[in-house]
Amino acid sequence: MNESGLQQLDSLRAELADLTARRDIQQALNDYMRGQDRLLPELQRQAFHEDGWVDCGLFAGRAWEFVDFAQGFLAQCDASQHLIGQVDITLDGKRAQGEVYFIAHHRTTQNGEKFDLFVAGRYHDEYEDRGHGWKIARRKEIVDWARTDPAADSFLREQTSLHLARRGAVG
User: Helices 3-37 and 63-75 sit at what angle, rounded to 10 degrees?
Assistant: First the structure.
């Protein structure tokens, strides 16, 4: 193979490594969110390196301890749904930085009344590939806005044929 062909091959290898890293980081983000909403702590932990660090304001500490904290909070909710928005990743070898937009909905019951807590913000993340795949090494949660509203979903009560969500792996 001539020099031009070797350069093209190197370029393709670099692009493939970039795409693979982005795919694996996206999978870590998905595991994190699904683990939260389905109350699957082991899945949520898969998103982090064991010595990872999380600062969400209400908690700052080891990532695996954060999972216990988050799972405890979310277990008190009737339901939750976390949605990922824009994901901006900057790769640098086996390290990367990212900003991930999110919107989170939490259904709560307070004094017998249903409420919807909405939180929107961004995660400022550091990711690393330490030889066992890309995972979150550090995460800081930034809250842009939040609101709590009385639940208004009489539609669900009226539509008895709907398949309503449950928590767990098959919910």
Answer: 40
